[in-house]
Amino acid sequence: MAAKQKLMDQSPLSIHLKQEYKFPDNELLKVIQLFETVHVKKNEHLYRSGDIVRQVYFVEKGCLRQYYINNNGGERTIYFKIENGWCSELVSFLDNKPTELCVQALENSTLQAINQKNWVYAISHIQSFTLGFIRAQQDTNYLLKKRLAEATVDTPEEKYLRFVQEEPHLLQRIPLYQIAAYLAMTPETLSRIRKKISEK
């Protein structure tokens, strides 16, 4: 038991839950045991459009992107998730409905995954998990609304400069064409913006 407790205390997931959501130790061990480790290679998908999402993922190491295919057949990135990020599609996960989204690993990644049965148990029996889920949903909704508001008023150059300011660590990890898809512009537009900025 002592060895398990020590391992739990050192895991990225347990550290994240304690720091971000103030999990007490007695509930933390219960939650950690509900997750399993998943390894995914670069460019592999966790799920694609039409799949039913079976797990919620915590990124222990690596980088994921969630995206959808628009009516023109192009990819539109919704978000990137790196270490300590959460990734899933809850409507599909909770209601067993096919998702319209895709999640791809941009790097070899190590994830902690919880399935629906364990998720429902945690929500029903572990108070810290329930409160943490509510908090995480509030944070996600705020960020999505913020991004939507910015997208309606910012110029393409302002979008890129905001990305550089708020997510500088992603510039070294994500290909520019995927950053362009996230910012809702073509790679050519992003290239022109970067050139213009470098010449100032």
UniProtKB/TrEMBL annotation:
InterPro entries: cNMP-bd_dom, cNMP-bd_dom_sf, RmlC-like_jellyroll. Signal peptide: none annotated. SMART domains: cNMP. SUPFAM superfamilies: cAMP-binding domain-like. It holds the Pfam family cNMP_binding. CDD domains: CAP_ED. Residues 23-119 form the Cyclic nucleotide-binding domain. This is Crp/Fnr family transcriptional regulator.
